[in-house]
Amino acid sequence: MTVSSIASAAPVGPSGRAIRRIWEAVLAVHSDEAHQLHALRDVRDLGEYRDALSCLYGLHQPVEAALAAASPLWRPLGVDLAGVCRLDSLRKDLAATGLSDAECAALPRCSVPPILSLPDALGVAFTMLGSVFGGRKTCERVTAALPGAPTAL
Predict the structure, then answer these.
(1) Rounded Cα–Cα distance for residues 3 and 55 (Å)
(2) Which is deepest, 16, 47, 66, 126, by most CB within 10 Å?
(3) For residue 121, how far is the Cα from the chain centroid?
(4) For 5-14, 53-62, 74-83, 106-115, which range has the lowest pLDDT when averaged over its residues?
(5) What pTM did the predictor assign?
């Protein structure tokens, strides 16, 4: 399933609107990066891997920031969305590939809309959790292609 098919297949309800808005923002700002993310499965060297991780960082940073800003919506319910956050792992992997903290901070980022409702927050968290599971499978492929590559994802 491609990024664009995910965006067009998102349900129309409140959560679906948030997911669709986020994916549309990703596509509008990072169309080349979306291709690179797909290519993460077949990385050939550490430079390609760093480029793909940089794209992931550019997606996760604004989405995780939007989730954090929406925490008054979900925290009173005792919901813990920490399991969908990957920025620390991405930073570690990027540092291991040679990117400094300053270079990481300067990476391009997607523009995402604010999360305004609990269904939107949970829908975005669900999507990000899917990304976590996909990342684990992708790391297996990266490890096979690049033994010793950092895979804290």
Answers:
(1) 13
(2) 66
(3) 15
(4) 5-14
(5) 0.69
Residue 20 to residues 48, 52, 105: CA-CA distances in angstroms? 28, 22, 26
Count other C-beta atoms under 10 Å from residue 3's C-beta: 19
From CA 105, how far away is CA 102, in angstroms rounded?
5
Closest of 53, 61, 48, 60 to residue 92, by C-alpha:
53
pLDDT value of residue 48: 85
